[in-house]
């Protein structure tokens, strides 16, 4: 019974982190049809910004409770600035190009962002543990968990609900769905497609930075974390269906529980289990669980 509880809590915790880290990637693909490899760079920028700001604030005598405000602030600033520079400075000149070329371009941007983080923060690791332990721990079946883990779960639910409401219950969301369906018709109807692309990319970058910022208190922030998250995020959105917010949530749950099961039952298969699940899903649903097959255009 204790093992089952541990698998459940760890699976939900890992799924919440994965959803926050990958939902921006699937949002950008769903609207712009860009597989944004640079998403890993946004995650790393958010993590470094958050860890640096928290460390500076706490070491300067600031109350730990207020350091929580630095997490969304760091994500907002890092994601908005980097996302706007990348979209306005590079990607807007590439729209309409082959999808493979866009992957190569965003991969090059990812490498640039990786070097930028090293130039700004160096190669030493950053640890900002204070927020994660400020609220203490809670026992679940005699297993201690930090309250911060459950805060991350709550944030993931809030972000998922907010995206659902914006996309399905607001005028902006309905216009965005029109842009997704047909860019040319949207432009003919007077919809500013360029503005929607810019806002979507910046929001996706902020969400990617939020995934890094909120995870910073629980991890050691060091070079290479962006490459790790882009691989895991890709697995999540492929399982759920590329471009689907609901699919990203379901994919995160599947990956989260697959990892938790392997960690508690057979640790050597931790990474293998994720890709085994991805292969099994794609064997049955080649486009992911929530994605529709697209007609091939010649």
TrEMBL record:
Subcellular location, record wording: Cell membrane
Topology term for the membrane: Multi-pass membrane protein
Segments passing through the bilayer: 12-31, 64-87, 99-121, 147-167, 188-214, 220-240, 272-293
Stored InterPro entries: ABC_transp_permease (IPR001851), BCAA_transport_permease (IPR052157)
Example GO BP: amino acid transport
Example of a GO cellular component annotation carried by this entry: plasma membrane
CDD domains with a match to the protein in the record: TM_PBP1_LivH_like
Superkingdom of this protein's organism: Bacteria
Keywords: Amino-acid transport, Cell membrane, Membrane, Transmembrane, Transmembrane helix, Transport
Name of a matching Pfam family: BPD_transp_2
Molecular-function GO term, any one: transmembrane transporter activity
Family: Belongs to the binding-protein-dependent transport system permease family. LivHM subfamily.
Protein name: Amino acid/amide ABC transporter membrane protein 1, HAAT family
């Amino acid at each position: 019974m204790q093992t089952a509880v541990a698998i459940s809590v760890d699976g939900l915790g890992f799924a919440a982190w994965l959803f926050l880290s990958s939902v921006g990637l699937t949002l950008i693909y769903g609207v712009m049809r860009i597989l944004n490899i640079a998403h890993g760079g946004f995650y790393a920028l958010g993590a470094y910004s958050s860890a640096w700001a928290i460390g500076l604030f706490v070491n300067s005598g600031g109350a730990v409770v207020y350091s929580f405000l630095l997490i969304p602030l760091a994500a907002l600033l890092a994601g908005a600035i980097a996302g706007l520079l990348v979209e306005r400075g590079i990607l807007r000149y590439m729209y309409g190009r082959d999808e493979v070329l866009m992957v190569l371009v965003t991969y090059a941007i990812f490498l640039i962002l990786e070097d930028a983080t090293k130039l700004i923060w160096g190669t030493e690791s950053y640890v900002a543990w204070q927020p994660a332990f400020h609220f203490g721990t809670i026992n679940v079946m005699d297993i201690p968990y930090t309250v911060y883990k459950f805060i991350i779960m709550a944030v993931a639910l809030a972000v998922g609900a907010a995206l659902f409401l914006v996309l399905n219950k607001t005028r902006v969301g309905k216009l965005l769905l029109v842009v997704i369906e047909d860019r040319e018709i949207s432009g003919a109807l007077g919809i500013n497609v360029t503005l929607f692309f810019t806002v979507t990319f910046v929001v996706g970058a902020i969400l990617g930075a939020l995934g890094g910022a909120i995870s910073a208190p629980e991890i050691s922030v060091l070079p290479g974390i962006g490459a790790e998250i882009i691989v895991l995020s890709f697995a999540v959105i492929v399982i759920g269906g590329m471009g689907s917010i609901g699919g990203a949530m379901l994919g995160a749950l599947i990956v989260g529980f697959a990892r938790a099961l392997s960690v508690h039952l057979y640790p050597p298969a931790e990474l293998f289990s994720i890709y085994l699940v991805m292969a099994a899903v794609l064997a049955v649903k080649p486009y992911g669980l929530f994605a529709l097959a697209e007609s091939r255009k010649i």
